[in-house]
Amino acid sequence: MTARRLLLVRHGETDYNREGRCQGHLDVPLNETGRAQARSIAARLATRDLVHCSSSDLERARSTAEMIVGQRDLTIELSPDLREAHLGVLQSHLYSDFGTILGEDAEYLTRPGVRSKPPGGESPLDLRRRARRFVSQLGETEKGLPPGEILLVGHGLLLRALLTVLLGLPTEAAFAFRFRNCALTVVDWRPGGRSQLVTFNDRAHLPR
User: Fold this and answer.
1) Of 72, 110, 154, 197, whose CB count within 10 A is highest?
2) Contact yes or no for 52/145 (Cβ under 8 A)
3) Are 92 and 44 in contact (CB under 8 A)?
4) Which residues are catalytic?
Protein backbone atom coordinates (compact mmCIF):
# COMPACT_ATOMS: atom_id res chain seq x y z
CA MET A 1 0.00 0.00 0.00
CA THR A 2 1.39 3.41 -1.01
CA ALA A 3 1.74 5.86 1.87
CA ARG A 4 0.31 9.37 1.80
CA ARG A 5 2.66 11.86 3.43
CA LEU A 6 1.05 14.05 6.10
CA LEU A 7 2.67 17.26 7.37
CA LEU A 8 1.46 18.09 10.90
CA VAL A 9 2.01 21.63 12.18
CA ARG A 10 0.99 23.27 15.43
CA HIS A 11 0.01 26.93 15.13
CA GLY A 12 2.46 29.74 15.84
CA GLU A 13 2.89 31.38 19.22
CA THR A 14 0.18 33.53 20.84
CA ASP A 15 0.38 35.90 23.78
CA TYR A 16 -1.41 33.25 25.84
CA ASN A 17 1.37 30.76 25.01
CA ARG A 18 3.99 33.28 26.08
CA GLU A 19 2.16 34.13 29.31
CA GLY A 20 1.54 30.50 30.28
CA ARG A 21 -2.21 30.95 29.95
CA CYS A 22 -4.70 28.25 28.92
CA GLN A 23 -6.39 28.74 25.54
CA GLY A 24 -8.47 25.66 24.72
CA HIS A 25 -11.35 26.74 22.49
CA LEU A 26 -10.71 30.47 23.03
CA ASP A 27 -9.99 32.19 19.72
CA VAL A 28 -6.64 33.82 20.46
CA PRO A 29 -4.67 35.31 17.51
CA LEU A 30 -0.99 34.87 16.72
CA ASN A 31 1.41 37.38 18.20
CA GLU A 32 4.36 38.78 16.24
CA THR A 33 6.60 35.87 17.19
CA GLY A 34 3.88 33.47 16.05
CA ARG A 35 3.56 35.24 12.72
CA ALA A 36 7.34 35.08 12.24
CA GLN A 37 7.27 31.35 13.07
CA ALA A 38 4.50 30.82 10.52
CA ARG A 39 6.50 32.66 7.88
CA SER A 40 9.52 30.48 8.65
CA ILE A 41 7.71 27.19 8.19
CA ALA A 42 5.95 28.61 5.13
CA ALA A 43 9.37 29.27 3.59
CA ARG A 44 10.51 25.75 4.46
CA LEU A 45 7.44 24.18 2.86
CA ALA A 46 7.31 26.54 -0.13
CA THR A 47 8.39 23.89 -2.62
CA ARG A 48 6.40 20.99 -1.18
CA ASP A 49 3.72 19.48 -3.38
CA LEU A 50 0.65 20.17 -1.23
CA VAL A 51 -2.60 18.79 -2.63
CA HIS A 52 -4.82 19.33 0.41
CA CYS A 53 -4.87 21.37 3.63
CA SER A 54 -7.10 20.90 6.66
CA SER A 55 -6.92 23.27 9.61
CA SER A 56 -8.64 23.99 12.88
CA ASP A 57 -11.11 26.82 12.44
CA LEU A 58 -9.61 28.77 15.36
CA GLU A 59 -7.77 31.87 14.19
CA ARG A 60 -4.29 30.96 15.42
CA ALA A 61 -4.31 27.74 13.40
CA ARG A 62 -6.18 29.16 10.43
CA SER A 63 -3.74 32.07 10.10
CA THR A 64 -0.79 29.68 10.27
CA ALA A 65 -2.33 27.50 7.55
CA GLU A 66 -3.02 30.51 5.34
CA MET A 67 0.61 31.62 5.54
CA ILE A 68 1.88 28.14 4.66
CA VAL A 69 -0.52 27.65 1.76
CA GLY A 70 0.36 31.12 0.46
CA GLN A 71 -0.35 31.63 -3.24
CA ARG A 72 -1.10 27.99 -3.99
CA ASP A 73 -4.41 27.26 -5.68
CA LEU A 74 -5.57 25.37 -2.62
CA THR A 75 -8.68 25.78 -0.48
CA ILE A 76 -8.12 25.33 3.25
CA GLU A 77 -10.71 22.98 4.71
CA LEU A 78 -11.63 24.26 8.19
CA SER A 79 -12.56 21.54 10.64
CA PRO A 80 -13.90 22.01 14.20
CA ASP A 81 -12.62 18.49 14.87
CA LEU A 82 -9.07 19.91 14.69
CA ARG A 83 -9.75 22.44 17.46
CA GLU A 84 -7.76 22.30 20.65
CA ALA A 85 -9.18 20.37 23.60
CA HIS A 86 -11.90 22.26 25.43
CA LEU A 87 -10.43 22.88 28.87
CA GLY A 88 -13.57 24.10 30.60
CA VAL A 89 -13.09 26.31 33.66
CA LEU A 90 -9.33 26.51 33.05
CA GLN A 91 -9.60 28.48 29.83
CA SER A 92 -8.15 32.02 30.00
CA HIS A 93 -6.36 31.27 33.31
CA LEU A 94 -2.64 30.95 34.05
CA TYR A 95 -1.35 27.40 34.41
CA SER A 96 0.10 28.43 37.77
CA ASP A 97 -3.43 29.17 39.04
CA PHE A 98 -4.97 25.83 38.05
CA GLY A 99 -4.75 24.30 41.53
CA THR A 100 -6.60 27.22 43.07
CA ILE A 101 -9.26 27.26 40.35
CA LEU A 102 -9.90 23.52 40.52
CA GLY A 103 -9.98 23.24 44.31
CA GLU A 104 -11.42 19.81 45.15
CA ASP A 105 -11.15 18.86 41.48
CA ALA A 106 -7.35 19.29 41.50
CA GLU A 107 -6.91 15.52 41.09
CA TYR A 108 -7.19 16.30 37.38
CA LEU A 109 -3.68 17.76 37.66
CA THR A 110 -2.06 15.30 40.06
CA ARG A 111 -3.42 12.06 38.59
CA PRO A 112 -4.03 12.65 34.89
CA GLY A 113 -5.68 9.81 33.00
CA VAL A 114 -7.45 9.19 29.72
CA ARG A 115 -10.84 9.91 31.34
CA SER A 116 -9.72 12.90 33.41
CA LYS A 117 -11.20 16.25 32.48
CA PRO A 118 -11.54 19.70 34.05
CA PRO A 119 -15.11 20.78 34.87
CA GLY A 120 -16.81 21.70 31.60
CA GLY A 121 -13.96 20.34 29.50
CA GLU A 122 -12.85 17.37 27.40
CA SER A 123 -10.85 14.31 28.43
CA PRO A 124 -8.09 12.67 26.33
CA LEU A 125 -10.68 10.04 25.33
CA ASP A 126 -13.05 12.77 24.16
CA LEU A 127 -10.25 14.31 22.14
CA ARG A 128 -9.32 10.95 20.62
CA ARG A 129 -12.91 10.45 19.45
CA ARG A 130 -12.70 13.77 17.60
CA ALA A 131 -9.34 12.81 16.11
CA ARG A 132 -10.69 9.45 14.94
CA ARG A 133 -13.69 11.14 13.33
CA PHE A 134 -11.38 13.55 11.52
CA VAL A 135 -9.11 10.74 10.28
CA SER A 136 -12.16 8.82 9.01
CA GLN A 137 -13.29 11.88 7.05
CA LEU A 138 -9.77 12.52 5.78
CA GLY A 139 -9.62 8.95 4.52
CA GLU A 140 -12.62 9.60 2.29
CA THR A 141 -11.13 12.90 1.07
CA GLU A 142 -7.75 11.28 0.38
CA LYS A 143 -9.27 8.81 -2.09
CA GLY A 144 -10.05 11.64 -4.50
CA LEU A 145 -6.73 13.47 -4.27
CA PRO A 146 -3.87 13.38 -6.80
CA PRO A 147 -0.39 12.33 -5.64
CA GLY A 148 1.14 14.81 -3.20
CA GLU A 149 1.25 15.79 0.43
CA ILE A 150 -1.45 16.78 2.93
CA LEU A 151 -0.97 19.63 5.41
CA LEU A 152 -2.78 19.47 8.76
CA VAL A 153 -2.63 22.49 11.08
CA GLY A 154 -3.90 22.25 14.61
CA HIS A 155 -3.08 22.52 18.31
CA GLY A 156 -0.82 20.82 20.82
CA LEU A 157 -3.23 18.52 22.64
CA LEU A 158 -5.28 17.77 19.54
CA LEU A 159 -2.23 16.91 17.44
CA ARG A 160 -0.87 14.47 19.98
CA ALA A 161 -4.24 12.69 20.04
CA LEU A 162 -4.28 12.72 16.24
CA LEU A 163 -0.78 11.24 16.10
CA THR A 164 -1.80 8.30 18.29
CA VAL A 165 -4.75 7.61 15.99
CA LEU A 166 -2.60 7.78 12.85
CA LEU A 167 0.03 5.46 14.33
CA GLY A 168 -2.41 3.05 15.95
CA LEU A 169 -1.14 3.80 19.47
CA PRO A 170 -3.24 3.65 22.65
CA THR A 171 -4.87 6.81 24.01
CA GLU A 172 -2.41 7.15 26.91
CA ALA A 173 0.53 7.29 24.49
CA ALA A 174 -0.48 10.88 23.73
CA PHE A 175 1.10 11.98 27.02
CA ALA A 176 4.55 11.16 25.54
CA PHE A 177 4.30 13.76 22.76
CA ARG A 178 4.64 17.53 22.95
CA PHE A 179 4.18 19.56 19.78
CA ARG A 180 6.13 22.81 19.55
CA ASN A 181 4.81 25.94 17.85
CA CYS A 182 5.34 25.72 14.08
CA ALA A 183 7.60 22.66 14.30
CA LEU A 184 7.24 20.09 11.53
CA THR A 185 6.06 16.53 12.14
CA VAL A 186 5.85 14.11 9.20
CA VAL A 187 3.84 10.90 9.03
CA ASP A 188 3.71 8.42 6.16
CA TRP A 189 0.06 7.43 6.48
CA ARG A 190 -1.40 4.20 5.20
CA PRO A 191 -5.16 4.24 5.91
CA GLY A 192 -6.04 0.85 7.32
CA GLY A 193 -2.37 -0.18 7.31
CA ARG A 194 0.85 0.45 9.21
CA SER A 195 1.82 4.14 9.27
CA GLN A 196 5.26 5.51 10.09
CA LEU A 197 6.45 8.53 12.04
CA VAL A 198 9.17 10.02 9.83
CA THR A 199 9.96 13.28 11.62
CA PHE A 200 8.82 14.70 14.95
CA ASN A 201 9.06 18.33 16.08
CA ASP A 202 11.67 19.37 13.50
CA ARG A 203 12.49 23.02 14.26
CA ALA A 204 15.48 23.51 11.98
CA HIS A 205 13.66 26.35 10.20
CA LEU A 206 12.91 28.29 13.39
CA PRO A 207 15.21 30.86 15.04
CA ARG A 208 17.15 29.48 17.99
Assistant:
1) 154
2) yes
3) no
4) 11, 84
